[in-house]
Specification:
The structure is a homodimer.
Chain A: E1 15-19, H1 28-39, E2 44-48, E3 54-55, E4 58-61, E5 71-76, H2 80-87, E6 93-98, H3 108-124, E7 127-129, E8 135-138, E9 143-144, E10 157-165, H4 168-180, E11 184-190, H5 199-207, E12 214-219, H6 225-236, E13 241-245, H7 250-260, H8 267-277, E14 280-282, H9 284-295, E15 306-310, H10 313-325, H11 335-344, E16 350-351, E17 355-356, H12 363-373, E18 380-384, H13 395-407, E19 411-414, H14 419-430, E20 435-436, H15 439-449
Helix pairs in contact in A: 2-3, 5-6, 6-8, 9-15, 10-15, 11-12, 12-13
Chain lengths: ~450, ~450
């Protein structure tokens, strides 16, 4: 579908036009205007709507043609048939983001509109993101076309993750949750029906994008399997790529068709393609969330040996179970280390893997256990902290951070619980220590760092 | 191991003794005294410690023997060897809760202490909960021996769930989380090393306990497989029983041994036993949490047909995928219903299953979709609510509740997101509508209601 390969102008536009601009606060186009200002877009913003001369004191053009400037990105927030009408006479637009629904996902009438759209833009050489999407959220070039008001969906600070998604709702969910947890992103592209620009074009751009350290994909389908595997294979040599495949089963496959018009194909084919391309596959929204959180802080590791340190037996066992389910190795400590630990830790402690410090634990016991364990050949450590034991204190946060920074191994904190626990989790996160709230999610995060489920 | 079968006095004691009582706030015994007062235990509380004459103005006895009353439950919060010393001369105690660690889980020396403990209590006919446990949290008879201060672990209000667990840390995690979400319980027993009273005795009691509507089990091992299956089989005829088996894999099995001294046995044997007994098996802490949450509100259903209504395509597809993975049926609507829906819903909507109301959704669209869908033969409905779409409002909470109450089908709300979403979730929960924060957890909850994974 792609006309050229360069889509980088979408991520560094000098001029943006909002087509269908409106002074009505609830309108998506109005939300987008506000968002572009809030995020601090530095280029020119042109408003287009024949109904208005001015919107909020800014000049409003009757048509795109009336603007005496080249438009890098025109954002269309109009009913589907109007999008076509507005695009037909256009000569000065490089790329369009069409957030409007009402195309291929809508059956025959919509499919015809989408065919027409495709024909127009191919003829004119305009690149398209969408339709039926949220568009771009970009903390680097400061673009935000996500038309959900900020009181309903918080915005993310800058970070190294970039996310590509067919589903707008996935983007909405993960953006809102990650923002609440203080995680940052570089660029997010929600491309919906993917009439033109899709995952492969974006991957191709992000591969060499310095702002992007990790790429996360939500996939219902890919448009060109061979090209996808080719580009993804090159991409995974440069930075980690994580993917979730949605629409695996019958009902999901069917729903995906009416969602973004995607033909899902057999899940097994996707699994094989991911594997071939070196993509780390995760399961569902939970897997994607865990991956985003852990890769926001840590890079991939070479091996798959996990050390577990806990102050609760049951949570330690659960982490160990899940780690082994996911193909990680929970190997025991050497006899020498066990002896050293037994001499330093209180008698209740169990010096296996997990190292169980029990409810008698002190802050210092965690340090002793970790310093002994991390001298061995572990790749990742999961530290379970239940805050019930009376002798552990807030100082534990700094102590764990110090150990992590000294030994330079990814440390995943697992801390299930309620209000007190969540308050402590904020402290961990302020120090750059990601916290996971279930034994299973901590293990899933470790599996991502080890390159995914085996 | 059981001496008699009646353990009901643990759940309706007239007198409690705290052995090892202390005026020092950090001591477990002091926390327990405070907890018994806070929860409003109505019987007599006796304090025992030869070091003190009075603690906080209350008389303190030198020994249990000095108390001129029969003690229904004596709580021991003392070092393991001292527990044995104190129990030896005792004649007026029916049951003991020994929270102290330092027994079987501690290797040879501890194992000898535990043997001694067992011998003493068998001779005297005293029933034991523990050692190495949190004991009992009971909102019916108002007992709380969980020795974790309330600022670190919130307490639960009264409800119909009863939880039996070998692991104290699982109890801690789930209590704290459920309390934060406003879920209630009847009785929780953390029995740790299970020198005497275990899951089967407790099941036997809870089977006919009117306060208990649902039983949830955390199991590392069972003590007597045949008796367990026998009692559980009778129990599941009267009320739902849910279980999680922990210590499935090598590292977990090994850790369980040093945790509660449990010999786990092969996981496959447990699976078969659960199935035979009609127990609903769930996976890990996440599965257990979902089960507690959904069974706090809804009962089991006969069939396994799920209707999904969503305002986000991607989240709907994910729910459908997970439902089918778990053996639920996501069957389509009848042609008649589809036609009715198409005529009433805006054109963007997809009238499959999921019914996708898209970002153009209004509060009323949810009602239309649900009223049409619920006339068909679905057993459970999952309603995904993403709060991004501008036209849905807080009033949706009441509208959904009204539909649920009218059609009398379990309605599981799935609402992933950040701060706004969590605020709305509180409203749902105040109305008795459980909210799940990932597509996967909503589907897992539905699978529990349908009797577990197929």
């Amino acid at each position: 579908m792609s006309i050229g390969t360069d889509i980088s102008f979408f991520f560094s536009p000098k001029s943006i036009a909002i087509v269908g601009a409106s002074p009505i606060p609830e309108k998506p186009s109005h939300v987008i205007l506000g968002s572009l200002k809030r995020i601090g877009f530095k280029g020119a913003i042109y408003l287009v709507n024949p109904k208005y001369s001015y919107i909020n004191g800014c000049k409003c053009y009757r048509s795109i043609a009336e603007i005496k400037d080249d438009i890098d990105v025109a954002i269309f927030a109009l009913p589907a048939p109007r999008v076509i009408e507005c695009l037909k006479p256009v000569e000065n637009v490089r790329g369009a983001i069409i957030v409007s629904a009402g195309f291929k996902e809508m059956g025959d009438a919509g499919r015809r509109l989408e065919e027409e759209l495709k024909e127009i833009v191919e003829r004119k050489g305009i690149r398209i993101i969408g339709p039926n999407c949220l568009g771009i959220y970009d903390t680097v070039s400061r673009i935000d076309t996500f038309f959900i008001p900020v009181d309903r969906m918080k915005r993310l600070k800058r970070g190294g993750l970039s996310i590509l998604t067919q589903s707008g709702s996935f983007a909405e969910m993960i953006v809102d949750e990650m923002a609440s947890e203080g995680i940052g992103v570089a660029r997010i592209v929600s491309y919906g029906n993917r009439v033109d620009v899709g995952e492969t074009d974006c991957l191709n751009f992000l591969m060499d994008d310095e702002a992007t350290k990790v790429i996360v994909l939500y996939i219902e389908s890919v448009d060109d399997g061979r090209r996808f595997v080719d580009v993804a294979s090159r991409c995974t040599k440069k930075k980690p790529v994580v993917a979730v495949k949605v629409g695996k089963r019958e009902a999901g496959v069917h729903a995906a068709r009416s969602h973004t018009g995607a033909i899902c194909g057999r899940y097994e084919i996707y699994r094989a393609a991911f594997k071939k391309a070196g993509i780390i596959e995760v399961d569902g929204y939970e897997g994607l969330k865990d991956a985003c959180k852990v890769l926001n802080t840590y890079g991939l590791v070479e091996g798959k040996k996990v050390l577990i340190v806990t102050d609760g037996g049951g949570v330690g066992i659960s982490i160990a179970d899940t780690c082994e389910d996911l193909g990680l190795e929970v190997t025991g400590l050497t006899e020498e280390t066990r002896k050293r630990l037994s001499s330093k830790l209180p008698g209740f402690s169990a010096t296996g893997n997990p190292i169980d410090l029990t409810g008698s634990v002190t802050d210092e016991d965690y340090v002793i256990a970790l310093e002994a364990g991390l001298r061995e050949e572990y790749d990742i450590v999961i530290v379970a902290v239940l805050w019930g034991p009376p002798e552990i204190t807030e100082r534990l946060v700094d102590k764990l951070k110090e150990v992590r920074d000294t030994y330079n191994k990814p440390m995943i904190v697992c801390s299930p619980g309620g209000e007190f626990t969540r308050r402590m989790a904020k402290h961990f996160e302020e120090k750059g220590m990601p916290v996971f709230y279930t034994p299973e999610s901590a293990a899933r995060a470790a599996a991502v760092l080890a390159g995914g489920k085996r």
